[in-house]
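dumping this here so i dont lose it
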């Protein structure tokens, strides 16, 4: 793919996302709101609070991650699978709780139903991939 084609493709993704209300500002709001809820969640709170030492730094990484996922921004360079493998308190059932809370947060704050669907497709794939990689490796 030529660099011109890649730039055009990235711009198209950003334009399509903007049309449903998804941009960096919304992603920042979503990450802040969602992880505020995660931190006090009865099942997820202890897992996340036990694994994250520096919440401001972690939130910045998560914002970069979601910008890369939702906007093809290319600003995230972490290794999520390796990071999650270090957390011994994660259980398979946590992924369903995480996804449910993520959807509830979206339904409360998303600018459109299309934005909810846009994120839920991606979040479902990410959660399933992490769950399979953590618990169901051959």
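and the seq i came up w/
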């Amino acid at each position: 793919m030529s660099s011109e084609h890649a730039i055009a493709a990235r711009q198209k993704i950003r334009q399509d996302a903007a049309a449903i209300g998804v941009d960096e500002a919304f992603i920042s709001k979503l990450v802040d709101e969602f992880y505020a809820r995660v931190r006090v969640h009865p099942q997820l709170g202890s897992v996340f609070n036990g694994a994250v030492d520096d919440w401001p730094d972690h939130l910045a990484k998560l914002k970069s991650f979601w910008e890369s996922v939702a906007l093809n921004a290319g600003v995230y360079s972490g290794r999520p699978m390796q990071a999650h493998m270090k957390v011994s308190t994660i259980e398979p059932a946590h992924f369903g709780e995480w996804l449910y809370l993520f959807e509830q947060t979206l339904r409360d704050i998303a600018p459109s139903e299309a934005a909810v669907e846009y994120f839920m497709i991606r979040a479902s794939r990410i959660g399933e991939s992490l769950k399979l990689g953590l618990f169901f490796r051959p």
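Residues 113-135 form the longest helix (23 residues).
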